[in-house]
């Protein structure tokens, strides 16, 4: 339970259910304290996210009562462990750790070894009998506190270490002796004073107060804000702050620090994996400054601690019912757990875990599906290197995030972002990456680094975003300032040149390797099969060609939810005939032109029906404005000018062509509309030129007859009338379609259905009347979003969407995820009104939203029968529909 005005909870009071209040880290540390016992988890307390929210609201001042509660909690902690913060003989040291509701790895701040000062460092040295350790801890504290809390530039601090190492003639930090570390601490303090104008704070209470503020402030830091934007985390959640007794991985060779996963974090194979460092504190492992060792090696160095860790990983995994990602520290042989969370993992590992967990009896199928992050499944459908291609590697690195990518080399996040805005494919190449590079990850097709392993920042973030990544390619010299990569054998790749990486194997090449569609693992097939068992929502595909239809079927589509016939008229061999039809001066000539189009259109439909072999196919009659099929006005004018100039030079030649172009121009001008998206399109075309829809209806029915004759399998035909506003529009055009069918002895309701796309607000309000003439509705949520919001889909992105997202007027594009309060309610209302008229009215969704997991969840709960999306989204929609039902 939560208490009002309580800002501080001891670890012994919290639990995993309290993550909103205590943050993920705080809630899980509390949960581990219960589950594993107090001797496994260093004691401490959590300052709530609400305290942070109050702090932000009050313009960065601590809420009343916070200071007192922190002091009381600190006293309890001191009593529990029998040490006092800043004590001159045996000081308590604490870490001050950020931790939001959802983990934001490395985005916010953490300070270690707090409580050290010029006096307590001597006490620590004497008490432990290890002055080197004491001074190493103090210099780390001054460094971290200076950098994180007071903004002393990291490079200046690093440079100070380098200088001193040079002076002392050593290479590694671990080679600095106690005297050198004492000297280093002094130089850090001098730098602190130079940078902040203040002496390094000696009062531990003051240190703690400043550190807590710094963690709160880091929630509003630029990189945290950016990360939240990309990951759609609300700005007003705030972060919790965890104050925890320090344990020390830097006490010598029986100590160490590391990260571990309960299963392989890249493949999902059921063997724990991870990295650790001997004689180190936690930040050394992730920062990539030292080369880490594989967790398996821990078994040889510290067998007991290793065995305990393996046991704990199993316990945590079954307790949480999900793959875990933990941070641990070993102090003189004793294992401490510092953090656990559900592991972020690439799609292949997610499906592997889901299948294994069900087989092991750990989870039910429903539970297992809920562990799969649907958005990431995309990666399994993404290309890999063509296995038949011969690829010459210029280097190899760690296979850190699966999938293959190719693009031009860029060396900075800014360049990656700029390139993405121009639509260029790039690979972001860096020695290592930091939090500030995250925008570049988003913009790049793939990431390549020369340092760090599978637990490095680059690997973590790339997997989180589903970007292919190869890291730790240590044979590459990545010269960011010189703008080139130097590979073994004198190979040089400059900025802008092409490179390809395979994040599944670690291979790097400059060959122009063909990328091919991914092979599906048996585990992925299994997850899809379970999804099909569990879901109640149908999944169809939007497809206009036999190839798309075949792919859609392979991906598991149960039919075609939208075939856009206009694409069939855009093909090169159709365009002249289509133009002739549009240019026709009277109905007779128009019919003649249409007669030429008929066999082509029929052949298109036959291909589609063949591919769909008996499954439902929903065909939308012609929708776009006619002028779209004519050449553009400025092209005609340009050509006319050219011909006239030429004609003048040659003395009147080309006159016939000029006259024809002039006629086209007149027609283009006549058809031109100021706002074609709201003009003569959809069923309005069918009302003005019924012979067009008639030809399409004939082509559909003739094709169906031909395919039935040939294969014995009739497609389940659905003819869809687009952009209906008035029930009379639908009534009129339905009669037209039914008459064409009748001539072939076909009956509506038996041999085919006629329905409409619901994509205008009026149609939603009048859905009961419209349903009188419809056998089905298909919600065209793209146009419905455009017309309900009055947003032009083609303009919003480049014009105002960015600012709207920035200002938090909306948190995502309504064209990506359905605007449920507005457009969603219209869908529900129309569904309800439609079914009031016709109980069995079939309801589908064929907009972009049909492939968006969040929107799918909404449709599932709105009584929709099926969604239809692009073929590549079909597998994602199947899993999303199952999760909605689970
Ligand atoms: P992040 O969210 O960036 O991972 P953490 O708060 O987890 O930040 O801290 C980073 C690392 O600092 C941890 O992985 C751990 O190794 C080390 N650390 C934090 N608190 C303690 C502690 N009480 N004792 C020892 N090491 C700690
Ligand atoms: Mg951590
Ligand atoms: Mg539309």
Mean pLDDT: 92
CATH topology of the largest domain: TIM Barrel
Bound compounds, each kind once, are: adenosine-5'-diphosphate, magnesium ion
Query: Which CATH top level class of the largest domain fits?
Result: Alpha Beta
DSSP strand count: 33
- CATH architectural type of the largest domain: Alpha-Beta Barrel
Structural class by secondary-structure content:
alpha/beta
Total number of distinct structural domains: 5
Q: How big is the Rg?
A: 33 Å
The DSSP helix count reads 35
Q: Major β-sheet, in short?
A: 8 strands, mixed
- Low-confidence regions: none
What share of residues is helical? 40-55%
**Terminal-residue CA separation:** 28 Å
- Beta-strand portion reads 15-25%
Global geometry? elongated
Oligomer: single chain
Largest sheet, spatial ordering of strands: 14-24-23-16-17-18-19-15
**CATH homologous superfamily of the largest domain?**
Phosphoenolpyruvate-binding domains
